[in-house]
Amino acid sequence: xxxxDFFRRWMTATAASVAREAExxxxxxxxxxxxxxxxxxxxxxxxxxxxxxxxxxxxxxxVLTLAxxxxxxxxxxxxxxxxxxxxxRTGKALGEAAExxxxxLAEALRAGVDAVRTLGGAAPGDKTMxxxxxxxxxxxxxxxxxxxxxxxEGAVATTPLQARKGRASYLGxxxxxxxxxxxxxxxxxxxxxxEASEAAxx
Amino acid sequence: MSDxxxxxxxxxxxxxxxxxxxxxxxxxxTGGGAAVPVAPAGGxxxxxxxxxxxxxxxxxASVDRGAGVAVLTDLGSAVLTVKTLLAEGDELPDGTRLVxxxxxxxxxxxxxxxxxxxxxxxxxxxxxxxxxxxKV
Lengths: 202, 136
Fold this sequence. Notes:
heterodimer, A: mainly alpha, Serine Threonine Protein Phosphatase 5, Tetratricopeptide repeat, two-stranded antiparallel ribbon, 8 helices, 70% helix, B: alpha/beta, Rossmann fold, 4-stranded parallel sheet, 5 helices, 14% strand, globular
């Protein structure tokens, strides 16, 4: 079972990973986007960890809904409403339980990913964060490590695709050959989930 | 007509200057009719390019006269942020709608229509109709 502390660790690990990888995310976003993905997400997740520390929500659902709200408020680019919606819908799906099972987490995350798909109108293969999130959620039944591997593979697999959503879609065929920054940051989020679970095992 | 509640208009752009200028343009073309509440919500809170959920919420609250609020947006994150705020349910005034319209032409059509005292549905229709105006 996973409690609010586990979800706080997930968010803290995501923030640390985004900070570590911010330059790489921005570099990936520079040939096909507007070169702000790393800095935008770093600003957002810095605000998330500060808020979680101050408000100390005591259920898994409350941790994620608060984190999502912060991202919507502070990111400033499309990744704000997209990641914000992902975390808020996942949090809402978890309800008010003090602890949730791995199955409940997987189910809630799927609801979150579905909400992102509805909001952005992206399908798998469009070269977006969905290409990392959908395989991750599909693999979550086999554990966090499997989800992390699936997300990373999904992110790498966006490289040969042509973007059909967001700013990268304006580039048409010139978007081919670049790994999608959104799929890459989504794989960091899932890797942080695995990291939080490893910390729980220690 | 002065007692009528007018539809409010919010203009969301990635740029503060674009949002403010389009608001000025649209108001300038109403010909000094009824004072339509129009608020720009452009750029990020620190003045950069992007979208601010806080600026959008504040702008919507400031133009709400009880007749609904029409929100027009430019690109990507502006659209997604407004959709997300609408999905939250309690972030924007009751009767707020994201209007599917071209930004500049739609804003002019929306403000001019709102100045006649038209309701939100009529304002939305006028803004959306701006898509059908071909230039060539």
